[in-house]
Design brief:
Pseudouridine synthase; 2 domains; two-stranded antiparallel sheet; 10-stranded mixed β-sheet; Alpha-Beta Plaits; alpha+beta; about 25% helix
């Protein structure tokens, strides 16, 4: 996408499509971009924000706003999302992904492609989903992942989400590749976990990439390194 690399443009408001690197938090990406803009143009203060968190173990599209454009972040947060990813059947983790070690294993010899195809349809449309305990949602002023890492358990209410597409794109048991299109507030880690529970063998997410937010596509994004290098070149 076309960006104007000037101090005035970033202050007036720029809209960035950034491909988040693996193991970076969304907060770290925003902080790095804010710091780089301030350093490059000698700005004391500039607002930078993002329209939707990605877990550290996920990659893919982030919408990032600078300057006065940050006032429009809310309108982007409600857009539908699209993802590709992989999950592993027969093993569950407390975080529903690779952040924590496998806590339980179950056999998968009963799993067939027909069973997978039938079970997949249970997760289409408007469904109730419970977010993972290892998430940034707040309860009583504390992030759930803070409680989880302290060994505390808490009851998490379900929420209604919409999954408009859930396709199994490659089946090589115990591993399955998939694509998902869904509403705001959907946790793909929970989808992987719940899919495994419905199959009776458990599952956890092993990789995730956000490919689209509304009409904005990952294919039009910049890597974080590309953005930072171009910013430096245009200083």
């Amino acid at each position: 996408m076309e960006l104007t690399y000037t101090k005035e443009a970033f202050l007036a408001g720029q809209f960035l499509l950034i491909d988040k690197p693996l193991e970076w938090t969304s907060f770290q990406v925003v902080n790095k971009i804010r710091w780089a803009i301030r350093k490059t143009y000698g700005i004391k203060k500039i607002k930078v924000g993002h329209a939707g968190t990605l877990d550290p173990l996920a990659t893919g599209l982030m919408l990032i706003c600078t300057g006065k454009m940050t006032k429009q972040i809310e309108q982007f947060m409600g857009l539908d999302k699209a993802y590709t990813g992989t999950l592993q059947l027969g093993a569950t983790t407390p975080s529903y992904d690779l952040e924590t070690e496998v806590s339980e294993r179950k056999p998968i010899h009963h799993i067939s492609e027909d069973m997978l195809a039938h079970t997949r349809t249970q997760f289409l449309g408007n469904i109730q989903q419970k977010p993972p305990l290892h998430s940034a949602i707040k309860k009583d002023g504390k992030r759930l992942y803070t409680l989880a890492r302290a060994g505390e358990t808490t009851e998490i209410p379900t929420r209604e989400i919409t999954i408009s597409a859930f396709d199994l794109t490659d089946i090589s048991l115990p591993n399955i590749a998939f694509s998902v299109s869904c509403s705001k507030g959907t946790y793909i880690r929970s989808l992987a976990h719940d899919f495994g529970q419905a199959l009776g063998c458990g599952a956890h997410l092993t990789s995730l990439c956000r490919t689209a937010i509304g009409n904005y596509s990952l294919s039009d994004s910049l890597t974080l390194d590309d953005f930072l290098n171009t910013l430096e070149q245009n200083a």
